[in-house]
From TrEMBL:
Residue span, Lipid-binding serum glycoprotein C-terminal domain: 202-400
Protein name stated in the entry: Lipid-binding serum glycoprotein C-terminal domain-containing protein
Annotated source species: Salix udensis
Residue stretches in coiled coil: none
Superkingdom of origin: Eukaryota
One GO molecular-function entry: lipid binding
Family matches, as Pfam families: LBP_BPI_CETP, LBP_BPI_CETP_C
């Protein structure tokens, strides 16, 4: 009997588990049932009767109690994840076969004689299909993007930097994770050596752990600084009187005397990228900035003084969908006069105004941008659920479960 065109059209798995090991990722499925269709043909002749007997038809096969096992290899290949089938096996416990076509009713009673051959053909067909499926999955992994867009200016580099590390309960992937300019403008790179466990989840049952080194946050800081995003001109504040020289006449008398009742604005420019430090309990940020006080006279913008600021704040992070979002609050700041065209500025009188300006204008502006967040490296179609944020030395770890569904 010759079997051909074996087609699996239904497969149900009762039990399965995945077991990472030193040599690969083992996947075992048991109690599996599947339905197949195939074509059969039969030829018989002997030297006694020179007449050839042949027949052909179609068969439906139901497989019960099948066990399938495969071992997958994972490695880094030029920044992408390479998946290979290292071993694959299939065992068919019980077959139910129904022949159609030809004189199938004649052969149905004799089918036991061919059951072993049919079972072997089914095992080979399923093994072949699994191999083809792994090749398709490998092509999918190879096609995953190497960058995740954040906005028009920035992307996150998600290329793999080492081979996956397998333990008895997890698979660990290390990716670059740094922010890069979409316009390919060179930015300072932050290199770090990972000497700590990458993921520190408090609940082992969590399906996913993503550990973000502070180098990731500092690369974002450097990128947006170099893209000239970190400067603001403030011409509207809650107390608008502070943007007129009349509001400063008792604080900087010479300013009001030189430019009476002229409008003003504040030009804040960061002098270097903000520096972020992550500890076991906090995410701290230090910002170095220059605040230039401008007077608006007729069609002219006249710089009259420059104040150097060192702003210290603390941040918090959370999860919104598949994005890591954040917020920052002001802890304290220090200031010094860089230069002035309106005499000496008494900094102790200006400090309350600076506090108000930072607290009511710059912090809310920063939080508006931080609330948008940036995407975590999650495969499209999966969503993070029940997320937990854990701080450790130089790292923020996101632990959670994942569910399939459009994100």
């Amino acid at each position: 009997m010759l079997l051909s065109n074996i087609t699996i059209y239904q497969l149900q798995v009762l039990n399965s588990y995945v077991k990472p090991g030193d040599t690969g990722l083992a996947i075992i499925a048991s109690g599996t049932t599947c339905n197949l269709s195939m074509d059969w043909s039969y030829e018989y002749n002997t030297w006694i009767y020179p007449v050839e007997i042949s027949d052909k038809g179609h068969a439906s096969v139901q497989v019960e109690g099948m066990e399938v096992g495969l071992t997958l290899g994972l490695k880094n290949q030029e920044g992408t994840l390479k998946l290979s089938l290292m071993d694959c096996g299939c065992y068919v416990k019980d077959l139910s076969i129904k022949l159609d076509g030809g004189a199938s009713w004649v052969y149905q009673g004799m089918i036991d004689a061919f059951e072993e051959q049919i079972g072997s053909a089914v095992e080979n067909a399923i093994t072949k299909n699994l191999g083809e499926g792994i090749l398709k999955l490998d092509l999918f992994l190879q096609s995953l993007p190497k960058e995740i867009p954040v906005d028009d200016d920035a992307s996150i580099n998600v290329t793999f930097v080492d081979n996956p590390s397998l333990s008895n309960s997890s698979v660990r992937f290390d990716i670059n994770g740094l922010f890069t300019a979409r316009k390919k403008v060179p930015i300072p790179m932050y290199y770090y050596k990972n000497t700590l466990p990458s993921v520190l989840c408090t609940e082992p049952a969590k399906m996913l752990g993503i550990s973000l080194d502070e180098a990731v946050f500092n690369s974002a800081s450097a990128l947006y600084y170099d893209a000239k995003f970190m400067q603001w001109i403030v011409d509207k504040i809650p107390d608008q009187s502070l943007l007129n020289t009349a509001g400063w006449r008792f604080i900087v008398p010479q300013l009001y005397k030189k430019y009476p009742n002229d409008d003003m604005n504040m030009n804040l420019t960061l002098s270097s990228p903000p520096i972020l430090k992550i500890s076991e309990h906090n995410l701290d940020a230090t910002v170095y900035a220059d605040l230039i006080i401008d007077v608006l006279e007729a069609d002219q913008v006249i710089p009259v003084a420059c104040i150097s600021l060192v702003i210290r704040g603390s941040g918090s992070v959370g999860i919104a969908g598949n994005n890591l979002v954040g917020s920052v609050k002001l802890n304290d700041f220090s200031m010094s006069l860089e230069w002035s065209n309106v005499g000496n500025l008494r900094m102790y009188l200006i400090q309350p105004l600076m506090w108000t300006l930072i607290q009511t204008v710059f912090v809310p502006n920063a939080n508006t941008h931080l609330a948008k967040g940036f995407p975590l490296p999650i495969i499209h179609g999966f969503t993070v659920q029940n997320a937990e944020i854990i701080f450790s030395r130089s790292k923020v770890t996101v632990c959670g479960d994942v569910a399939f569904g459009e994100s």
